[in-house]
Amino acid sequence: MKFMEQFLLVLLIVFLAVVAIQAVYYLLIFGKFSFAKNEKIAPKHISVSVIVCAKNEEENIKNYLPLLLNQDYPSYEVVVIDDASSDETIALIEDFQTRHANLKLVKVENNEAFWGNKKFALTLGIKAATKEYLLFTDADCYPASTEWIAEMTSHFTMHKTFVLGYGAYEKEPGFLNKLIRFETLLTATQYFGWAKIGKPYMGVGRNLAYKREEFFKVNGFINHMKLRSGDDDLFINEASTKAKTAISFNPEGFTYSRAKESFGAWFMQKRRHVSTAKYYKGFDKSQLALFYCTQLFFFILPIPLLLLQFQWIIVLGAIGFRYIASWISLGFSAGKLEEKDVMYWYPILEIILIFTQINVFFRNIFSKPVTWK
To answer: What integer pLDDT is reported at residue 369 of this predicted model?
Structure first.
């Protein structure tokens, strides 16, 4: 009996440490973004190249390219890279070119050494761009407003040469849509929070900007060209620094895209995204691992303590404290990123997401996820 009590005491201490670590993440690290003031900055009106990589995106080009070409911004070009499409993507872009002088088409032919490698296509597009600053989005994304370019580029300064934006998903009926948007909210809260405290570790290609010279300083994607994913997060992880990185979270600067409509499709997307994390810098891998491990242990460790009614008041108090801390932090973040509705489902969404991530982790150990189209 004495051994059992000692074991449960150790378990309780470990659980309280887990709760403390989670509170530090949510209140002190993520909170740097969650509780930050949202201030509108005057547009810079610097010259910008908007870069979009497309592969068999006929419908999206038809629907979303006009929104990129009609931005309220004085000096910009749109560079669309066609990555060996087999549909009518090129024909549509060429048709748009007849009406828009600031639209440039870069054609990528199939290359055996770089077949299906989005980074190769993006490199050609970046080299073809003529402006000093680059703003990236995907072909299946569209800007939230005509002020998108103005908002994202307003954060550039003499020293800030990277701008991390928010790539949101459209709100649609269904639980899967809420789960995907919750995961997107949590991820953005993490990378915005770390960027605010001077440890930027990733960005999303759906909404990302940097100065052109930063790409060539690190020889582009050369250090991870063999990996077909990571044109956004691995590049930011390698090239960005505290002094160089700003974040944009005004709604006018968001981009939107449609979320996956089946769990299987979203699961494969998650596998692609997670597959690059093991190539992050050591500190970034460690902080991510610590967060997700303590998040998992927060749900596992209280079970034996509560079943055996060992210090159950302390256990329930710790659970309540962690939920209050995380709910407040994510709630403020959700308000900034216009995702408030997902917070009503927060506890359920978090549990499902945790076990989905465990599944993704083990699946990626035994097989490689499918990448770029």
So the answer is: 62
Residues 6+ apart with CB under 8 A from 361: 274
CB 252 within 8 A of CB 151: yes
Q: Find tokens 């993006």 and name the residue.
A: 122
Does the pLDDT of residue 9 top 80, yes or no?
yes
Indicate the CATH number for domain 48-184+196-261. Answer: 3.90.550.10
Contact (CB, 8 A) for 337 and 37: no
pTM over 0.85: yes
Q: How many other C-beta atoms can be found within 10 angstroms of the C-beta atom of residue 114?
A: 17
166 has pLDDT over 90? yes
Round the average pLDDT of the chain to a whole number and report it: 93
How sure is the predictor about 229, in pLDDT bands with cuts at 50, 70 and 90?
Answer: confident
Q: Where are the domains of the chain?
A: 2-34+283-365, 48-184+196-261
CA nearest neighbour of 33 among 153, 196, 186: 196
Name the DSSP class of 105.
Answer: E
Q: Check residues 83 and 370 and name the one with the higher pLDDT.
A: 83
Query: Is the pLDDT reported for residue 112 higher than 60?
Result: no
In the numeric block, which tokens belong to residue 242?
A: 């505290």
DSSP H stretches of helix in 24-100: 31-34, 58-69, 89-97
- 146: CB partners within 8 A, 6+ apart: 70, 71, 72
Closest CA to 280 of 329, 237, 231, 340: 237
For residues 169 and 178, what is the distance between their CA atoms, to the nearest angstrom? 10
